[in-house]
Amino acid sequence: xxxxxxxxxxxxxxxxxxxxxxxxxxxxxxxxxxxxxxxxxxxxxxxxxxxxxxxxxxxxxxxxxxxxxxxxxxxxxxxxxxxxxxxxxxxxxxxxxxxxxxxxxxxxxxxxxxxxxxxxxxxxxxxxxxxxxxxxxxxxxxxxxxxxxxxxxxxxxxxxxxxxxxxxxxxxxxxxxxxxxxxxxxxxxxxxxxxxxxxxxxxxxxxxxxxxxxxxxxxxxxxxxxxxxxxxxxxxxxxxxxxxxxxxxxxxxxxxxxxxxxxxxxxxxxxxxxxxxxxx
Amino acid sequence: xxxxxxxxxxxxxxxxxxxxxxxxxxxxxxxxxxxxxxxxxxxxxxxxxxxxxxxxxxxxxxxxxxxxxxxxxxxxxxxxxxxxxxxxxxxxxxxxxxxxxxxxxxxxxxxxxxxxxxxxxxxxxxxxxxxxxxxxxxxxxxxxxxxxxxxxxxxxxxxxxxxxxxxxxxxxxxxxxxxxxxxxxxxxxxxxxxxxxxxxxxxxxxxxxxxxxxxxxxxxxxxxxxxxxxxxxxxxxxxxxxxxxxxxxxxxxxxxxxxxxxxxxxxxxxxxxxxxxxxxxxxxxxxxxxxxxxxxxx
Amino acid sequence: xxxxxxxxxxxxxxxxxxxxxxxxxxxxxxxxxxxxxxxxxxxxxxxxxxxxxxxxxxxxxxxxxxxxxxxxxxxxxxxxxxxxxxxxxxxxxxxxxxxxxxxxxxxxxxxxxxxxxxxxxxxxxxxxxxxxxxxxxxxxxxxxxxxxxxxxxxxxxxxxxxxxxxxxxxxxxxxxxxxxxxxxxxxxxxxxxxxxxxxxxxxxxxxxxxxxxxxxxxxxxxxxxxxxxxxxxxxxxxxxxxxxxxxxxxxxxxxxxxxxxxxxxxx
Lengths: 280, 298, 267
Known about the structure:
- The complex is a heterotrimer.
- By secondary structure, chain A is α/β, with parallel strands linked by helices.
- The longest helix of chain A has 19 residues.
- Chain A has one domain: Rossmann fold (3-Layer(aba) Sandwich).
- Chain B has one domain: MetI-like (MetI-like fold).
- By secondary structure, chain B is mainly alpha-helical.
- By secondary structure, chain C is mainly α.
- Chain C has a domain of 171 residues: MetI-like (MetI-like fold, Orthogonal Bundle), CATH 1.10.3720.
- Helix content of chain C is 73%, strand content 0%.
- Chain C has 12 helices and no strands.
- Chains in contact: A-B, A-C, B-C.
- At the A-B interface, loops of A face loops of B.
């Protein structure tokens, strides 16, 4: 059953689509940079991250690898201040995003988070329609015009390749999508707030191989405009998509470097052992 | 726009904080205001006399609460004695023996029993339990009984607290780690031995807490008991005597006795008494249950 | 053990059967569509519409109050306070105790409060007192359901840059079935309770036209009719009991339906 509203919107969409075929993603930030100085994180007196110093290269994919429990996810959460929600986490050190210390005074958490699009381990669609899922971010950040929102929604749904799959049912609940589709929806939702960075926390671990492939292709497409930081659970994935690798072990950065160098010519003994699979 | 969002967020936070504080204060306000309402009678008579005298003649200024306090405990005790074996056995059965289907059948039954309003229990009590006692049970033991007795109150109350007991006990039994029972079973113990040696022993504190909770519910139950227990001011000598518990006293007399300030205060005193007993019992058992929950969580 | 379980099952059936057996002959359409007539309490014509409507009014009013307080409180405890905070523990503990306070104490407290505020036994008084009774019930069951919610959704919302308040609004949509369950449970308890409305709501043969007028309620109507020496009136009490039981049964089943949609492991 198609309501008149639906038809109206659909016709609206079509004109937007035509417009869109010409446009690529509009956002082009000139200098993105993440620089971390002397970061220490404690959770309930356990030293989780130890003296992290790091610069993350812009407009490329950086993969963080390491055995589980090494602090990868904790690290990722420090970048968009998600630890603010848990008082047992103590953070010291500086994290510069676009040359601003996000742990400094007078920093607006919301603005920081808006700069970071997060893709979580399991897709978590909001309890609303597909359309509303993508529209939610722009709406809360102050976009009111229907046309602008329409355009954003279609643009990003197209971008993640979901538009053609769901165009007849964008007004239906997002939970009915397959899990792979949900993850792409979450990516579109994250992109819709127009971030500069994309964080992925084992974003493909819940997905089937085909969906994983789609997401990976998207990441490669996205690095033209975004700086991407991924925590990954598989070495092969890091090999496939990363430009840079950071290897963490027990809260410390053991080695970092370009993918090529890291896999073919590791410098540290621990790295060699990890790559050869003697521990994981 | 950003400012507006921040303001909305802050406002919502403070409203919620206010409500949270209000909820805690509410408990204190109830206690304190009942206390102040009860103060006049406590000034008039010593607490000791109020609690231990059996002399209840409001129109002459004698307020002895012993018959009511005694009745309350008596009825509740009978109820627990009847309800406890049923509840323990049923919970064990549901936890260790029953098939999935039986469990699924029992959940709504327990829910329904706890959902039926007290008045309906009262109706049921007057229709079935009271005549049963008057005609069948009592004549074997005593010469005459109207049926409106401690026993009737106890039975009706027992039926009312059984669902509460079962639902808590099933939770308590469930909180025992499966490894523990498995270990016992793998050593060749029979199911019943496991139940006796592992489950029951491990959940003694939980069962006690559930019992105390049920007792405090029983103390406060008003309508159903009022309808079947006779409401005669006396210290019941046997379970076939009529009795007059505290909540029934309040329900029957409050609202009509406002012309007598001391009487009103006396009734408020009984409400305060109930409040204190229930808060103490409740707090204690909730605390124990929380501890149990926490112990097995990690 | 099976015996014990069977007896409990039997008692439930017995209770419902007894009420229906005695009440069914007296139950007719007049009961639910007519106000008590002139000689109603002597066995003449009429129904208990006054009590049904009164109960309904009181429930609606107290529901509005308690939803307005319960929902923010539960959201606050679960999403604003850290999971192990002392404050959250204190709130939950007070809720447990408030939950255990007998309805007669609420009734007495409510009445004392009404005298203090200068409200006489009325619809308003009944609403306030019943709200006190059902608030802890609603809060506790809603809290239990809310605690089951995984952290994924709040995290997803916050990472989109939502404020806490915006986050809570979306979470509430997700929790809607849970809230409905909590509300139905609260109605079930509130509508059947006589002790709270005994002094606070008063009793009348008419349908209250304003908040200041007294209101009849079903449980009290049953109680008063049962106290009558006339057999017809007593039978009508049983019929009213059927009405109340049926209402409760419907509520209970729908609560169960909603909660089974929501959580899988709960007795």
